[in-house]
Amino acid sequence: MPNNKSHKNANGAGSLRKRKNGLWEARYTAIVNGRPAQKSIYGKTQTEVRKKLAAITVELDEGSYLEPTKYTLESWCKEWLEIYVKPSVKRSTYDKYENDMRVCILPKLGMIKLTDLDAARIQHVYNDLLKDHAVKGVKNIHGELHRCLQQAVLMGYIKNNPTERCVLPKGQRKKIEILEMDDVIKFLEAIKNDRFGVIFYVTLFTGLRESEVLGLTWDCVDFEAGEILVNKQLAKTKHIGGDYTFAPTKNGKERYIPVAPTVLRTLAEYRKIQDGWREAAGCAWNKDLNLVFTNEIGDHLVQDTVYTHFKKIAAQIGKPDLRFHSLRHSYAVSCLEFGDDIKTVQENLGHASAAFTLDVYGHVSRNMKRRSAQHMEEFIKKVS
Description:
With about 375 residues, the protein is of the alpha+beta class. It has helices spanning about 45-60, 75-85, 90-110, 120-130, 135-155, 180-190, 195-205, 210-215, 260-280, 305-315, 325-335, 340-350, 355-360, 365-384, and strands spanning about 5-10, 15-20, 25-30, 35-45, 220, 225-230, 235, 245, 255-260. It folds into three domains: about 1-60; about 75-165, Tyrosine recombinase, N-terminal domain (DNA polymerase, domain 1, Orthogonal Bundle), CATH 1.10.150; about 180-370, Orthogonal Bundle (hpI Integrase, Chain A). The protein is about 50% helix and about 10% strand. The strands form three sheets. It has a four-stranded antiparallel beta sheet, with helices on one face. It has a three-stranded antiparallel beta sheet with strand order 5-6-9. Strands 7-8 form a two-stranded antiparallel sheet. The radius of gyration is 30 Å and the shape is elongated.
């Protein structure tokens, strides 16, 4: 019958026939693992299959042919995470990758074969993510997906990385909210008798990240040398049912921060309070963590609880837009205002480079701007 008749391809690279199910099939020979193997491609029309076969013929002639992979994005992504990501990054980084892929990418693209994945489909997902995610977050997810697919390219599963043709959203750096001098006075008054007041106080005058201050242990507080060793953070794993755990610092490096004597005295007084909790808790006290900031039985604090409490204090002093991270920003700006050089501030903050510190705090505070104007006035008087 005509529908089952084979048609010899003009290029001699294979043959075409119409199958009983109505699809057209083209067969060709490819070298797989050093041996010739018969392969098939399918399409709804003879013309469609001829075009596919012609493209494959060119690839075979040029030596650029890749064996079609059976991987979907989901199956490949899971393998990539397990084999290539997990052994090479921090647990917190792995958890973030896994969570981003599982929540943001795979529900919409997971069932698509790697060879069928294109930039347009990925772009639509990025655009949708912008509705609920910050620009930086979408860029981070793009970076993770890019690395996933780039490994597929290196493995020969796909020819090129479709994420390279996507257009990433542009975003401006958010305005940094800080506590000016008057705000600091109000803030210190508001936290005087607060349950988490010492945490906020120490953060404001050391510039620690929230995860670093909550992960600070007593063995890292050197009262004699007057410094704190920052060598870990308390992080919550992002996988389902995840718990808090100690993790390396954000850049994986430890740093020493010189601490003002008043801050050290505050910590010493707080330790006496904690000693009272330890005595009252008895055998229920958690001896393993040795954390500076704990609940009444020595367990770690919950970041969300501390952050929510901070927001109440911020609203109380008329600064509802402040974030916990604003304490770190305030520390940095104060250091610059009082004349610390940028390299010292960078090292205290644990930034990767002084250039990054300059980029973040190039805006300076109102006091610094006023002082800059005064310096210019003095210069004008000298040269006039």
